[in-house]
Design goal:
It is built from 8 helices and 2 strands, in the order H-H-H-H-H-H-E-H-H-E. It is mainly alpha-helical. Strands 1-2 form a two-stranded antiparallel ribbon.
Length: 182
């Protein structure tokens, strides 16, 4: 049996059974590989209360109920690209519950949604780069008069792959990361 400082209910029953059979604390401790203090505590608790089961721990109840959790997952699945602050606002409008960003983030993580940086679309693809090069080579010998006849209307951003990064995040459930889209 793997040892930890807190035995399970079944292991506590084994300790009580061996104690009833007249085994010493040292024998029970060495057989089950629990410290003598743990074995003594289990036996003492059983003698005093007649019960040695683990009781559920107390603590503050969670802010979100089952319905709120379903509303949150629905809001995240509806649109996975907005930042967590916007998801929080949409959740509060949909459910009426006022919760912190940390609560929203923790619940999203519990349901398998994790913020991931989206893949960047290359600003100039290989085919686009080749087409531009061909156009430049075709117009290499133009005169100034020919260039004056061109109407220049829009300035565009020319860059290569990952030169300008705009951070965008999406919330993806862990199971669907490796799934192919339908």
């Amino acid at each position: 049996m793997p040892r930890s400082s807190k035995p399970s209910d079944f292991e506590k029953g084994i300790i009580i059974g061996r104690h009833k059979c007249g085994r010493s604390l040292r024998d029970i401790s060495s057989d089950l590989k629990y410290p003598k203090s743990t074995v003594a505590y289990v036996i003492k608790k059983w003698k005093v209360s007649g019960d040695c089961r683990n009781v559920p721990r107390v603590g503050r109840p969670t802010k979100l109920g089952d319905r709120d959790r379903r509303v949150l997952t629905r809001e995240i699945r509806k649109n996975r690209t907005p930042p967590m602050a916007l998801i929080r606002e949409e959740f509060q409008q949909a459910s009426g519950s006022v919760v912190s960003m940390n609560t929203i983030r923790k619940e999203a993580h519990l349901h398998g949604f994790h913020g991931r940086a989206t893949a960047h679309k290359p600003l100039i693809t290989k085919s686009n780069r080749a087409a531009r090069l061909m156009w430049c080579k075709a117009h290499r010998n133009w005169t100034v008069d020919q260039w004056k006849r061109i109407l220049w209307s829009v300035q565009i951003l020319i860059g290569s792959l990952y030169e300008h990064s705009i951070s965008r995040y999406t919330y993806i459930p862990r199971a669907s990361i490796h799934m192919t889209p339908m």
